[in-house]
Amino acid sequence: MMLKKIKQLGPGLLFAGAAIGVSHLVYSTRAGANFGFGLLWALLLINVVKYPFFQFGPRYAAATGESLLEGYNKLGKGVLISYFLLTFATMFTIQTAVTIVTASLASELFGSDLNNFHWCMVITGICLAILVIGRYKLLDNLMKIIILTLTITTVLAVVFATQEVGSVSFTQIFPEETPHIIFLVAFMGWMPAPLDISIWHSLWAVEKRKSGDIEKNTDKKIALFDFNIGYIATIILGAGFVALGALVMYNSGETFSDKGGEFANQLISLYTNTLGDHFSMIIAIAAFTTMFSTTLTTLDASPRAMASTSKLLAPKLVKHTYVFWMLVLIIGTTVILGFFTSEMGTLIKIATILSFLTAPFYAMINYILLTSKHTPEEWRPKMAMKIFSILGILFLIGFSVWYLTIL
After folding, report:
1. Could you report the per-residue pLDDT of 122-136, keeping only the tens digit for each?
2. E-state strands within 84-226
């Protein structure tokens, strides 16, 4: 049974690859650098609050053999159109943000005369080749290697940093100043990821089933095992990056730049100065692997989701819609990169805050679908999970309203 479970790992690791990115490398590290371990409460709380809504993605896919998008369509065209518009409004900014960070780290890691824009094109070209040539199968296999590499290097980084630092404080902090509150909302917006990744997860689960590794009507325990592995990994690594920021950068007096190249240089230099030159390669690999996995999975997932949505809304509109939407995403991202390559911080802030403000929508729709007649009764959440989900929805709505009132 364990070997069977391991073979079926895939969508959960793709989820982890998409989630462990800007939220971890940029925001978790900055949370540690600015507040020490003081925002661990926020990291743990938002992971707990979002858990059921992320879990509903693979749960629905396993129960029905369909993605959440097909479920949304059953709830009404209006729900699917809303998703289409929200995704179209945010996917270019998200892809641009993660690509800029990845390119900045690639420049630091590999060294080159290429500027950030050219590195963005190189990274995008590599990801495009992987997805077009290898399709889902290569993405699935490659992500297992990437997540393993990321986990090992991050754990090593935390261990080394702990040995170099003395006592630390775990006093928890709630930010009171407006800039710090904006940071908190952005941090929680993409921690562990935007809620629409539940849709991506369901799409990957359906694709995994097509590969033959997952049987139809998969046992619930097996279906959720893969998800839980990926979700736990995102929490552990999120805490790991907070620890790195707290142990290495807290009270260092360093102010992080919003420009990608400068941020990457500061990140690696601080670790090198504190822990020694021998450590720079480990953190560089961990950081680059973190962001490359996110860039790769987002370049696959957004076009995959838009293709599925397009086919459901207008079945005869376009053939080969996955490739079509991938090209649309690349073109739109390239245009934004041409104008805003140096504005990494602004782009990330916009993307993360939008993700937080749209979270209540995805939480409510996922809950409605999973508790409706469209989900087989034995797969619907039990009463405890329903209560937990309702409380989570109320929290997301309340926190979003509170944030909007203080702006």
Report:
1. 999 999 988 888 776
2. none
CATH of the domain at 267: 1.10.4160.10
pLDDT tens-digit series, residues 302-348? 999 999 999 898 877 666 688 889 999 999 999 888 776 556 566 66
Tokens of 135: 């399709």
Backbone phi, psi, residue 340, to 5°: -130, 25
Structure tokens at 378: 């034995």
How far is residue 293's CA from residue 276's CA, in Å, rounded to a whole number? 27
185 Rama sector, left if φ>0, alpha if ψ -120 to 50, beta otherwise = alpha
pTM: 0.84
Indicate the number of domains in the chain.
Answer: 1
Distance CA 348, CA 257 (A): 13
Alpha helices in 165-219 (DSSP H): 178-189, 197-210
- Asked if omega into 192 is within 30° of 0 (cis), the reply is yes
Rg (CA), the chain: 20
Range of the domain at 62: 2-293+342-406
